[in-house]
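Researcher: Re-running this chain for the archive, since the previous output was lost when a drive failed. Same request as before.
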Amino acid sequence: MVQPLLFRDRHEAGRQLAQAVMAELSALSASQRLAPPVIYALPRGGIPVAEPLAQLLHCPLDVVVAKKITRLDNPELAIGAVTADGQVIRSRYENLAGQDPRVWRMAVARAQQKARGQLAQLSPHCPQTNPQGAIAILIDDGIATGMTIAVAARAIRAKQPAALFICAPVAPKLIIERIENWCDRVIVLIAPEAFLSVSRFYADFPQVEMAEVIAGLERQNAVKHPNPD
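Model: Regenerated structure tokens:
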């Protein structure tokens, strides 16, 4: 059976996701709603998905840059993930038996260097938010293995938000339970059992160019928003 396409593109997925997140926020208690929202997207694909929600909430749009850690001998095989600031997770399926620890450290360093390079490109266009005491909303265009969004969530958690939401248009049903361990709330529009790739759920899923990422950040952050500091 052919899986029907659910989203025309990332922008449409973002608009649908924004409505779901707004409904969750409106259901919070009065005291919980006092915490200001701050939105974080995983670049590149998370930016066009996150922008509609940032517009509705009139709040900053920031990034958490995370990169997959891959084997040096097989760059297509992800064995973990690392953020630009050094938060690291390792895949639970990675077999450590007989491995030289130096190989792991080299793979981490290589991935973190990529993350730092991308963050350096994006930082001038970001609001440099502090999520402490805020409702931090972490968004990507889809969750496959969950490693990059998990390590991004860990990086945000370390800054002590009042609550952390993980949000995506699509994620595998089997991974939802694990996602719930990384945050306070998970908002996923569809969680199919059959899941091969995020792109299968979009009619139009091109690579998001850096120019588009920067333009989205600049559009949303051109207006000064209250900082949750």
